């Protein structure tokens, strides 16, 4: 049976006897362990963490440590389409054979963004992505960090520590603006098609009338393809 070892407020790591190496999950943004800073215009928000970390492998006593934080970020213009750049910053330490991973996903979507860091390395980590939102006054994002590797008594534990997650709106439009742009594009395409048809008729003889008995001009089209010809014949007396 595992012995609970307190790590920080809201986080408890269970240490199991050698031979039992389960995964351990924790809450990365328990009440009182994170704070937010928002720009005056509301278009950028930084989430600062006191202890958003995952530890596993090596001497940690568990093969895989997992910590999750579910974020809800306010959107200043919920009636439109917004695109946000999301940056993750922190520190990673992994030995050979160990891996640290950052994953993120939006509720209701199957798309998952994943960044993996293989050992050996000890360095600052920065990872980024872009997410979108429409028709809501918040952006929902689930962020999970994972540290894993073989459990042994010789390697240091793998660790991933996130300090901040930054959200910055980089694009915005409204449904009305999108509709107007599509209508304008359709009108431009229609005008271009009419100009091309006029040019084709001129080149292929569509504007030339039949002149007497010895001249013929025809033009025809079906959707995009067009064809025409000019012809003249001479009657030979018998």
TrEMBL record:
<feature type="compositionally biased region" description="Polar residues">
    <location>
        <begin position="113"/>
        <end position="126"/>
    </location>
</feature>
<dbReference type="Pfam" id="PF14273">
    <property type="entry name" value="DUF4360"/>
</dbReference>
<keyword id="KW-0732">Signal</keyword>
<protein>
    <recommendedName>
        <fullName>DUF4360 domain-containing protein</fullName>
    </recommendedName>
</protein>
<feature type="region of interest" description="Disordered">
    <location>
        <begin position="103"/>
        <end position="126"/>
    </location>
</feature>
<feature type="signal peptide">
    <location>
        <begin position="1"/>
        <end position="25"/>
    </location>
</feature>
<dbReference type="InterPro" id="IPR025649">
    <property type="entry name" value="DUF4360"/>
</dbReference>
């Amino acid at each position: 049976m595992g012995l609970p070892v307190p790590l920080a407020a809201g986080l408890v790591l269970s240490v199991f006897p050698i031979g039992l190496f389960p995964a351990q999950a924790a809450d990365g943004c328990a009440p009182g362990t994170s704070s937010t800073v928002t720009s005056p215009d509301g278009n950028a928000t930084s989430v600062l963490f006191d202890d958003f970390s995952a530890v596993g492998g090596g001497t940690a006593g568990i093969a895989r440590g997992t910590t999750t934080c579910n974020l809800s970020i306010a959107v200043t213009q919920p009636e439109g389409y917004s695109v946000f750049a999301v940056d993750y910053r922190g520190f990673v330490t992994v030995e050979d054979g160990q891996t640290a991973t950052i994953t993120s996903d939006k509720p209701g979507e199957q798309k998952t963004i994943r960044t993996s860091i293989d050992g050996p390395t000890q360095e600052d980590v920065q990872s980024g992505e872009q997410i979108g939102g429409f028709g809501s006054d918040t952006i929902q994002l689930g962020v999970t960090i994972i540290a894993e590797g073989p459990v042994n008594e010789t390697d240091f534990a793998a660790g991933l520590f996130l300090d901040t997650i930054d959200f910055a709106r980089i694009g915005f439009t409204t449904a009305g603006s999108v509709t107007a742009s599509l209508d304008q594009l359709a009108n431009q395409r229609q005008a271009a098609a009419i100009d091309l048809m006029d040019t084709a008729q001129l080149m292929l003889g569509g504007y030339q009338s039949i002149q007497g008995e010895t001249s013929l001009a025809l033009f025809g089209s079906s959707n995009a393809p067009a064809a025409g010809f000019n012809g003249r014949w001479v009657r030979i007396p018998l």
